[in-house]
Amino acid sequence: QVRPRLVEPAGGGQYRYSLLLAQTGEKKDKEFNGAIQLVAIVQRGKETVMMQFPAADDPATDQFRVSFRHFRRLEGTFKVAGDGRIQRVEARLVQDGVVKASQSVSL
Q1: Among 4, 7, 84, 85, which is least packed by CB within 10 angstroms?
Q2: Contact in structure between 87 and 43 (CB atoms under 8 Å)
Q3: Burial class of residue 50 (count of CB atoms within 10 Å of its CB; 0-12, 13-18, 19+)
Q4: Rounded to whole angstroms, how far apart are CA atoms 83 and 91?
């Protein structure tokens, strides 16, 4: 499971997030090794765009890698360029290129 607990503006196009990651069911005793992925729906004037974090060329990709057994709280920031305003953020838990869980929150 992935639960976005908080996504809020931090100023200067920066947004702060807080996620709760948890394993449930029969796999809860195995170590999860994967990554989180954030997908933001951003309004820029009359245009709506989708932005993914980390981007393919993002040097900070390692900050999105996660490893946990039962649960983990994860906090961080991401930046939306320009005058974009976030409408919704989807948090995804990805392992070996497969989305294992996702949940979204509207701002």
Answers
A1: 85
A2: yes
A3: exposed
A4: 22
**% of residues, the chain, pLDDT over 70:** 98
d(CA 59, CA 13): 19
Angle at alpha carbon of residue 28, lines to 27 and 31, rounded to 5°: 85
**Sheet with 2-11: strands ordered across:** 2-11, 14-22, 71-79
What global pTM score does this model have?
0.86
- The Cα–Cα gap between 91 and 31 comes to 20
Structure tokens at 74: 């994860």
18-68 tens-digit pLDDT? 999 988 777 667 899 999 999 999 998 899 999 999 987 888 788 899 999
Q: Which residues of 17-28 are buried (b: 16+ CB within 10 A; e: fewer)?
A: bebbbbbeeeee
